[in-house]
């Protein structure tokens, strides 16, 4: 069965592209942190296209291979700052939503130790955005492995 081509319907996705650009332009989130969040959510969701894209973009922006390789086990290494760890925990809970009790007060307080309200809003929008992209790419089975950095 042939699935929908995202490229043929890319105009319909421009609000998503614009939101991503706006989040980054506001500068509330460090660019490397944003790349880690995009990667981690895509790992959880199993989106090959997004993993390909965001790993290449992260490397092009100076992220180390070691941090990308160990991202799925971030709790078991000291390669990530406390702020990054808080953001990754938050992103995981928002992506998995194991219950309506997700994002405990303790996690929220931990996040607020490192990020102000504007950054928390942008982090939440970024997680929602990548989850939408993951679902779109998984639904239409966009193939990973062909992305070139700075080509989007």
UniProtKB/TrEMBL annotation:
Domain Carboxymuconolactone decarboxylase-like: 12-93
Alphabetical list of Pfam families matching this protein: CMD
Keyword set, alphabetical order: Oxidoreductase, Peroxidase
Membrane listed as a keyword: no
GO MF term list: peroxiredoxin activity
Top-level taxon of origin: Bacteria
NCBIfam families on file: ahpD_dom
Protein known as: Alkylhydroperoxidase
Organism of derivation: Rhodanobacter spathiphylli B39
């Amino acid at each position: 069965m042939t699935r929908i081509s995202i490229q043929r319907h890319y105009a319909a996705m421009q609000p998503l592209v614009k939101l991503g650009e706006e989040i980054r332009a506001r500068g509330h989130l460090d660019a490397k942190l944003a790349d880690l969040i995009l990667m981690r959510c895509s790992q959880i969701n199993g989106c090959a296209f997004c993993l390909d894209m965001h790993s290449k973009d992260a490397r092009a922006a100076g992220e180390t291979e070691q941090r990308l390789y160990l991202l799925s086990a971030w709790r078991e290494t000291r390669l990530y700052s406390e702020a990054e760890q808080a953001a990754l925990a938050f992103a995981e809970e928002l992506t998995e939503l194991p219950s309506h009790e997700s994002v405990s007060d303790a996690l929220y307080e931990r996040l607020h130790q490192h990020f102000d309200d504007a950054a928390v809003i942008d982090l939440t929008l970024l997680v929602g955005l990548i989850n939408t992209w993951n679902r779109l790419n998984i639904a239409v089975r966009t193939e990973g492995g062909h992305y070139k950095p700075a080509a989007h």
